[in-house]
Amino acid sequence: MGLGIAIAVDGTAVAELSDAVLVEVHQRMGEMTKYRIRYDIDIDKGDFPDLIDSRIDAGSELSIIAPISGANNYLVKGPVTGQRIFYQNAGGGSYMEVEGADTSIKMGRESKAVIWSDLTDSDAVSQIFSSYGYTADVDSTSAGHSEDKHTLVQRASDLDFVRRLARRNGFLFWIDCDSSGTETAHFRRPKLDGNTGVNLDINLETNNLGTLDLAWDVEKYTSVVAAQLNLNDKSDIDGDVSSSPLASLGTQSLADITGDTRSAHLHTPVDDAGDLTSRGEGALIEDAWFIRASGQTSVNSLGDILCCVLGFMIARRLGLRRSVLAFVVTEIVLLLWIRDSLLLEILMLVHPIGALKAWQMCR
């Protein structure tokens, strides 16, 4: 685990696959989690044996796991979807990138035509999740779809259909895993009134951010005017929404900042006020995110800095001779224990040697 992560194939950790030079996991609420793993590849007997490794072939299910506080934290679990291979003349500097996504990608492999009747949006989603073996975390929706009124029609893949229902109700859809790798499919609104999972600090003593980029845009709707006619009894259906149902993350909402009303008009065929109101709330939830932020943070980088400072302090106390002796002993122990060390890393970076690479990977 040179990068501090473990990679499992079909639920079983594989030590040599964790010897990656780069691992990227892209996560965003409400979207599919994707990953990219880069491996250096070397010529062995006139060929590149890593390219035919079935463990990282198309369809193989990989899990990227980060051990945190003694427990496994699954960053992503899902099938390999592709590879990108770069060849360098004579082999040195060649690499292969393995790309994949979480298992929700399987939900998008078949377009379907289904009529859902006598149930709610959340009922349909729960049935879909069950068919894929997920543990379901589904919030209830109020809109009903009866046979004698408007049924719920699906003309898309399960993935696109669930995403459409999530957006309609102001929900998010995503999949994650617990420490044992059991997958849970979530279909609900984000919870904004709880405690923060982590604090991101910049320019403070507890700094853990390298960069922070903020942008805001207030040209968004702050309310929804929604009205429809009930075709069964010709009565009016009122679905007006005056504000987003989500808790505000700051002291002021978008409407407080703009100081005026910015309304959207919603017109869609519905059978009850609950359905119309849910759609209006969904529209406001989508527009309520008027501040966007991006940044870079790395716990590993912070740890490297602390270890470097500690190393300088120890060297100062030991003196030159004992520091050199401690360094040599540490290098030997690492070579015998994990087949890796600082000097070996520098050598393989400057001049990769296939025989050493094979020895490191226990081949």
Strand line-up in the sheet with most strands: 2-1-5-6-7-4-3
Percent range of helical residues: 25-40%
In DSSP terms (H or I, runs of 4 or more residues), the helix count works out at 8
End-to-end separation in angstroms reads: 17 Å
Based on CA atoms alone, the radius of gyration comes out at 27 Å
Low-confidence stretches: none
Mean of pLDDT? 84
Structural domains: how many: 4
Task: Report the principal-axis shape.
Answer: elongated
Strand count, sense and barrel status of the largest sheet are: 7 strands, antiparallel
Strand segment tally: 19
Describe the structure.
This protein is an alpha+beta fold and 363 residues long. It has four domains: 6-101; 107-188, Baseplate protein-like domains (Phage tail protein beta-alpha-beta fold, 3-Layer(bab) Sandwich); 211-296, no CATH class; 299-360. It has helices spanning 121-131, 158-169, 254-258, 273-287, 299-318, 320-338, 342-350, 354-360; strands at residues 6-9, 12-13, 22-26, 34-40, 61-68, 71-86, 95-101, 111-116, 119-120, 135-138, 144-145, 152-157, 172-177, 183-188, 211-216, 223-229, 236-238, 263-266, 291-296. A seven-stranded antiparallel sheet has the order 2-1-5-6-7-4-3, with no helix packed on it. Strands 10-14-13 form a three-stranded mixed sheet. The mean pLDDT is 84.
